[in-house]
Amino acid sequence: MKKTKKAVILLSGGLDSATVVAIAKAKGFEVHALSFDYGQRHKGELKLANEQAKIQKIKDHKTITINLREFGGSALTANISVPKNRSAKQMSHNIPITYVPARNTIFLSYALAYAEVLDAKDIFIGVNALDYSGYPDCRPEYIVAFESLANLATKSGVEGSHLKIHTPLINLTKAQIIKKGLALGVDYSKTTSCYDPKGSKSCGECDSCKLRLKGFEKARKIDPVKYVSR
Questions:
Q1: Given this model, what pLDDT does residue 105 score?
Q2: What distance in Å separates the CA atoms of residue 56 and residue 188, rounded to the nearest whole number?
Q3: Per residue in 37-59, pLDDT tens?
Q4: Which residues, including other chains, have CB under 8 Å from residue 189's CB and lie 6 or more apart?
């Protein structure tokens, strides 16, 4: 009997992570997803993560509660204004204030622990080095380093069972990600990318909204989510 391939996937409720789930399922993985209620201002993404889990028929979906607001240091976890209407040039300079200190390291550590419990050898994360090049924990070299750490610091790694961290979107443009997701049947109306939503609507002005809208435009598709301002 063929053994089921299990994968742990970080599911935020955003466009990228929903696409990653679809990619993993297409590769034949049984998906076990983790979402995080970490004190983020855009907590509405968690509802959409739950919806994606149901739509994509994920095997198991857990939401972990941690409070990164205790530390702050980011526009997403402190009373700091989210930057609005920045140009592509402005977005490409320096690490933005929307960077949450060590967030991906924390999330991947949880995913690693869960993978060990499940005896899963694969973790998927929707990091992207093109649209979010300012985030230090979205770079290819960071993923390589964390994978090395994972195989040094775990029982399974020490016993010779290699764990792989998959980043299928890391070198794709937002338009390429959208096209890939649509080809796999992803319902992008049940995702959000906004850092500063107004009720059920995305702001349309934060860096993440700008990048998403530009991606849909270049993919020649209409973004199905509602915006305060396009």
A1: 98
A2: 12
A3: 999 999 999 999 999 999 999 99
A4: 224, 225
State how far the Cα of 182 lies from the Cα of 171, in Å rounded to an integer. 18
Enter the tokens of residue 41: 């201002």
Q: Residue-wise over 170-189: b if at least 16 C-beta within 10 A, else e? A: bebbbbebbbbbeeeebebe
Ordered by where they begin, the domains of the chain are: 6-218 (3.40.50.620)
In our burial notation (b when 16+ CB lie closer than 10 A, e otherwise), range 96-134 reads bbbbbeebbebbbebbbebbbeeebebbbbbbbbebbee
CB contact set of 159 (below 8 Å; sequence gap of 6+): none
Are 173 and 130 contacting, i.e. CB atoms less than 8 angstroms apart?
A: yes
Task: Give Rg (Cα) of the chain.
Answer: 17
The torsion defined by the Cα of 73, 173, 163 and 32, in degrees rounded to 10, comes to 80
- In one letter, which amino acid is 160? G
What pTM, to 2 d.p., does this model score? 0.95
pLDDT digits 0-9 by tens, 171-192: 999 999 999 999 999 999 999 9
Tracing tokens 């994968």 back to the chain, one arrives at 7
**Long-range CB contact pairs, 75-80, < 8 A, 24+:** 75/41, 75/195, 76/40, 76/41, 76/42, 76/100, 76/195, 77/38, 77/39, 77/40, 77/41
